[in-house]
């Protein structure tokens, strides 16, 4: 198992991880649409709480967790509790659960809360964890990975499952999973044209390649408030291994038509992650989408006016929301700064994000 260079069981894969990454004990077939996840289905899923909020993350080695920068700050170091090996965080009878504190919080130095660019953070656990069927690291997409428009991906998290439940103060009951298609960057930028145009006002050097979008054009299935920091994953072709392509970051509403979820594109940060992580190395894998990307020939003709954007924060410990099953599995997001200029001015006054 301990090899410097490891060829995985797919023609699309090359990794340099010590134990094999991205392997889940759960073997049941997955259903398209929101549903409860079973123990062992997503063994890298992490749930953590600070003194005032909760977010998701993913285990990438025996002592490092990958999450979103908007979920946490250095001030949270002594107030953060991390749970691994759970699908029901509030359960007191979970024999597979492992709890840790943090010894380090290292967020990307160029994280921009106004545009959500570089919304990525690494958390070092207070002590390494032992791998079990319920606690495993996920593979990470390497810098040469490609994710074509329409590619099937999965999102998991402990966020709200219905938009009407946002802010009702209900605790998350169980880890949720939903399948959503990748939305090519040309199409995503078209759907979010007003949003990203205003983002460019704040940062003319904004690199849209640092984002990755996923969701249905008609809406209905998405990640939502409380899922921030969690993984967007793809499965290797002809393989049972999973690769993290994105980190839940932001969006406009939850499961809104033509407003897919926006994720931090993990493959853009391979060098930063490798330079930051100490000890056991994370497993980077090159994921190559088959065929030709239809997004390359996409032409933006959208004329439909977008719904008014609004912002949310990571779930508050006094305002968490449960996941129930159902078609409107909306687990997503922290709507931070990529908003229209009016919202930007509003938040300058009100200070609604971290």
UniProtKB/TrEMBL annotation:
The chain crosses the membrane at residues 332-353. Gene3D superfamilies: Trypsin-like serine proteases. Residues 31-278 form the Peptidase S1 domain. CDD domains: Tryp_SPc. GO terms for biological process: proteolysis. Keywords: Disulfide bond, Glycoprotein, Hydrolase, Membrane, Protease, Serine protease, Signal, Transmembrane, Transmembrane helix. It comes from the Eukaryota. One of its GO terms (molecular function) is serine-type endopeptidase activity. PROSITE patterns: TRYPSIN_DOM (PS50240), TRYPSIN_HIS (PS00134), TRYPSIN_SER (PS00135). Coiled coil: none annotated. This is Peptidase S1 domain-containing protein.
């Amino acid at each position: 198992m301990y090899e410097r260079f490891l060829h995985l069981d797919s023609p699309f894969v090359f990794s340099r991880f010590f134990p094999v990454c991205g392997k889940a004990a759960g073997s049941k077939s997955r259903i398209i649409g929101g549903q409860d996840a079973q123990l062992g289905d997503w063994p890298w899923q992490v749930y953590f709480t600070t003194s005032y909020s909760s977010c998701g993350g993913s285990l990438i080695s025996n002592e490092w967790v990958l999450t979103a920068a908007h979920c946490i700050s250095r001030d949270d170091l002594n107030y953060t509790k991390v749970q691994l090996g759970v699908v029901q965080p509030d359960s007191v009878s979970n024999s597979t659960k492992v709890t840790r504190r943090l010894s380090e919080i290292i967020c990307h130095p160029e994280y921009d809360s106004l545009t959500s660019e570089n919304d990525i953070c690494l958390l070092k656990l207070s002590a390494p964890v032992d791998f079990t069927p319920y606690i495993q690291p996920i593979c990470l997409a390497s810098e040469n990975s490609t994710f074509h428009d329409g590619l099937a991906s999965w999102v998991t998290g402990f966020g709200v499952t219905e938009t009407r439940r946002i802010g009702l103060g209900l605790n998350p009951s169980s880890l949720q999973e939903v399948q959503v298609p990748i939305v090519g960057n040309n199409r995503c930028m078209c759907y979010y044209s007003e949003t990203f145009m205003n983002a460019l006002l704040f940062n003319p050097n904004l690199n849209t390649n640092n984002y990755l979008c996923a969701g249905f054009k008609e809406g209905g299935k998405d990640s939502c408030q409380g899922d921030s920091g969690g993984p967007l994953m793809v499965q290797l072709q002809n393989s049972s291994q999973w690769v993290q392509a994105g980190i839940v970051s932001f969006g406009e509403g939850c499961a809104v038509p033509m407003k897919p979820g926006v994720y931090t594109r993990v493959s853009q940060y391979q060098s930063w992650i490798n330079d930051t992580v100490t000890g056991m190395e994370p497993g980077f894998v090159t994921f190559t989408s088959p065929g030709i990307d239809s997004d390359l020939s996409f032409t933006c003709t959208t004329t439909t006016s977008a719904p008014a954007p609004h912002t949310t924060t990571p779930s508050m410990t006094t305002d968490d929301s449960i996941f129930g099953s159902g078609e409107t599995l909306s687990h997503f997001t922290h709507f931070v700064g990529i908003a229209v200029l009016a919202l930007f001015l509003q938040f300058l006054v009100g200070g609604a994000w971290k």
